[in-house]
Amino acid sequence: MPILNIQNLHKEYGRITAVNQLNLTIEAGSVFGLLGPNGSGKTTTLGMILGVTNPTSGAYSWFGETGSHEHRKRIGSILEKPNFYPTFSAYKNLQLACLIKEVQESRIDEVLEQVGLFERRHDPFRTYSLGMKQRLAIGSALLANPDILILDEPTNGLDPKGISEIRQLIIEIAQSGKTIILASHLLDEVQKVCSEFAILNFGNLIHTGKVDDGFGDQVLIEVSADDNLTLEAKILGYPLYEKHRWLKDKIEIHCKSNATATDLNQYLVTNGIYVNHLTVIKKNLEQQFMEILSQNA
């Protein structure tokens, strides 16, 4: 069931189009990644669907209804860097958050356990590492036990250990049944954490799909024969075939990940095709991402 539906959402700042006629649907229970370079419109999009930024035009709906204050109570979010009183402990900072969110203080210990800060709950916020500060921010967003958690660049500025801890925390939160929408410019982050993703570039939506389908390791095989038209007809029946395209006098075949050159060649020989060129190309995730961006520049 769609938990968020975005229809032609558009935002302009003077002559600058930050988000251009965005259409997007996010299903309940998914971990959805908004991926794109800095300045691609990710934060602006999150600001609009949270009611922080007014769209120039377009609409969005949460839970099948127009966004309202009541709906936003079901959403926890972090759009900016953690902002807590530096001399207050984690516990005292969360007490203040409970007052603002009208949440029972009994949630504090449970949340601190969940984000791994229970043992440090009475230490001043200023003594925390960047990773701990980010975990406390996530804890604050979880106080009202929201259905949805929205995170904008959650690992930005963290060291490798902090990045790993935040990613693991996001996975654990998702496994508890919450829907997570995560914006990042890091391909690796989206690939490791998200189930579905969309790519924004210069405010435009240029690609959507499932992470496993869109950014799984691809096997590409370049092949040619004396009669490439007959070759093209035959490869359509190859059991591991996914799609293909012409590259001048060669054909580039996108195959399933378990395909091999030997297997393809045997299939073609069995069907009376003898190739004069056959090369395997493995595209890594970074190459695929950059290729999508360049095709839509």
Topology record:
Layout: E1 2-13, E2 16-27, E3 31-35, H1 42-49, E4 57-62, E5 65-66, H2 69-72, E6 75-78, H3 90-101, H4 107-114, H5 130-142, E7 148-152, H6 160-175, E8 179-184, H7 187-193, E9 196-201, E10 204-210, H8 211-214, E11 218-225, H9 228-235, E12 241-247, E13 250-255, H10 261-270, E14 275-283, H11 285-295
Parallel strand pairs: 3-8, 3-9, 6-7, 7-8
Antiparallel strand pairs: 1-2, 1-4, 4-5, 9-10, 11-13, 11-14, 12-13
Using brief descriptors, characterize the structure shown.
alpha/beta, Alpha-Beta Plaits, 2 domains, 11 helices, 32% strand
Strand content: 25-35%
The global form is: elongated
Largest β sheet strand count, sense and barrel closure: 6 strands, mixed
- The largest beta-sheet arranges its strands as 6-7-8-3-9-10
Order of helices and strands: EEEHEEHEHHHEHEHEEHEHEEHEH
Radius of gyration over C-alpha positions, nearest whole angstrom: 24 Å
CATH architecture of the largest domain: 3-Layer(aba) Sandwich
Individual helix count: 11
The tally of strands reads: 14
Q: According to CATH, what is the topology of the largest domain?
A: Rossmann fold
CATH C-level class of the largest domain is Alpha Beta
Detail the poorly predicted runs: none
